């Protein structure tokens, strides 16, 4: 999905997507599946850009059953909340919904940004699909096809495509600087193509980690 600005306020999922400042080349991130404020028995994410700066983070959350997970908040490197992810408890395909931070303050948020779920109910199927919320003429939100994943996230070998078949991002194993040592699965590479929102892609990665 290409990202464009308009002068008027966008009232669908795209309203939260910021156009990247450097859109002429892919952006490379190193994702560490560990909170920068880690505590034993919890998980999180620390995401660094190619300059070594902390770009995104997810602080501690439990990997217990999803019905015990209220929400997961994606923040920027300084700790500013960007969006929140909530599991849909009664879902055979591990559906997660994404909301603006202001919506998450409500007990029953009603304006989701996107919904992501496993492609199939079969547990051994690695594909996932993303539907974006789009406001219709009757002022009601409708979910429309947005993105899909191919490959195996658990093996850190997968790609994300938009609904037009364009490659959005690639997830791969990380090696040391001299490429002599292949690092473990807790550290991996995320490369995002020009014109796509890194915040949105990172949210997809978090959900992939939860539904695998």
TrEMBL record:
Region (Disordered) location: 1-20
Transmembrane segments: none
Record-linked PANTHER family: EXPRESSED PROTEIN (PTHR31087:SF95), PTHR31087
Family statement: Belongs to the LOR family.
Record-given protein name: LURP-one-like protein (DUF567)
